[in-house]
Amino acid sequence: MGLSGEQLKALARQGAVQRYRELQDELAALTATFPELARGGKRGKAASSAPSAASRRRRSMNAAQRKEVSERMTRYWASRRAEKAAGAGAAGKGKGRRRKAAKKTVEAKKAD
């Protein structure tokens, strides 16, 4: 003989209440053993003295600092372009997508 829906629901509720009490007892035992868990998991002064990522703010630059950074980066990128031009030279030009496309065209003509 099977149980009715109401009987099953009542038994499930009794089981849930019992499990809830077991979990509460386990939590109380863990909190007694590790009291820092009740405070959110932080350990002593080391964790509480460090600024959190949300509260830390980035310093803003004044106009003179922004201008200095701008000039420095302009020089940096100019030197990078000069190095790239000197390193590539005339022999480096023409490589890349155009050459690959031309190679495909030549291969296609050979196949015909």
**What is the tally of beta strands?**
0
Which regions contain 5 or more consecutive residues with pLDDT less than 50? none
Shape estimate: flat
Number of helices, counting only DSSP H or I runs of 4 residues or more: 4
Radius of gyration, in Å, reads 36 Å
Structural class, by secondary structure, is: mainly alpha
**Average pLDDT across residues?**
82
Oligomer: single chain
Distance between the termini: 83 Å
What fraction of the residues are assigned to beta strands by DSSP?
A: under 5%
Binned, the helix content reads: 55-70%
Largest β sheet strand count, sense and barrel closure = none
Folded structure, characterized:
The protein contains four helices and no strands. By secondary structure, the chain is mainly alpha-helical. The N and C termini lie far apart (83 Å). The longest helix has 29 residues, at 5-33. The mean pLDDT is 82.
Question: Any chance you could write out the topology, listing elements then pairs?
Answer:
Blueprint: H1 5-33, H2 44-49, H3 63-88, H4 97-111
Short description:
The protein has 112 residues and is an all-alpha fold.
Short descriptors:
single chain; 112 residues; mainly alpha; 4 helices; 68% helix; flat
